[in-house]
Amino acid sequence: MRRPLAVLAAVPLLFAAACGTDKGTGAGTATNASSSAIKVTGEAGKQPQVTFPGGKPATTSSVNMVSEGQGTPFKKGDSVISNLTVFDWDGKSNTMAGSTYSAKPELIKVDDKLPKVLFDAFHKVKPGGRFVAVVAPGDSYTKQDLEQAKQQGIDVSVPKVFVFDPVSVVTPKISGTAGDPGVKGITLESPEGAAPKLTTKTDAPAPKELVNKTVIEGKGPKVEKGQTAVVQYTGKIWGSDREFDSSWSKGGEPVSFPIGVGQVIKGWDQTIVGAKVGSRLLVSIPPDLGYGKQGQPQAQIKGTDTLVFVVDVLGAY
Known about the structure:
- The relative contact order is 0.16.
- This protein is mainly beta.
- The chain is elongated.
- The chain has helices spanning 11-17, 116-122, 137-140, 143-151, 266-272; strands spanning 39-41, 49-51, 62-67, 79-88, 96-99, 106-109, 130-135, 160-169, 187-189, 197-199, 211-216, 228-237, 243-246, 255-258, 280-285, 307-316.
- It contains five helices and 16 strands.
- Residues 1-20 form the signal peptide.
- This is Peptidyl-prolyl cis-trans isomerase.
- Belongs to the FKBP-type PPIase family.
């Protein structure tokens, strides 16, 4: 199973994910070095235009709400789909370090690993809103953050300026009445508020074809080819009940990956694409749509093993 892509737990890693460079929109005449002196124009949800004040950059972190958005503010523990644009505020060129508007939104976990200025800002903004934050090196990074950035060749000697456009929060868990998957030899329990329990210990022969059963149908949009899917899952071997991978067993954090474009096993590409967000799937994948004849030795999966997954489709962007 492919591990998560750039689901970013700590902001210094975010800098490394920024792609391409560009020049900022230059310096204005303001002299107050804080987020409130940075002029951000343009509609939330589109590439922002940013004008920096003249003079030296800020030395302390700060945040300014450009627009509040609508709905419910985000809270600790939320996984937020967000667009963002990052600048290096050096007081000269103020180079843009990267922007998701030239790629795809990121999944940001609102937790204590974020610098406090960003953590606090996410508690005030709502979906569709926008905020600009100055993340200064003097009060935002731990020694471990700085060392990690140094090892990755990331310059944190100047403050970073983030313009965040949060889009939505990922569904934390699936809810609804579970139906019988109707796959002979396989049982699936869906206790309310807990991870599903998949049992694959059986003498029944494994299906030779791909099986995709919607156990709980979500109410969200259908996942489209080329999107990034956000899921929870457990995978077991047909017949042995041996679990070879599970996001629930690894702390319960959702994972994300491009879907429908060959970045995961074929069985996932062919079943998650088209599923509605909020759905729980029971999927049986024959070897040719899994890891093929070579199997996956690291996970102790043989080339003849049929894989069985329960997959919760939490989001797509």
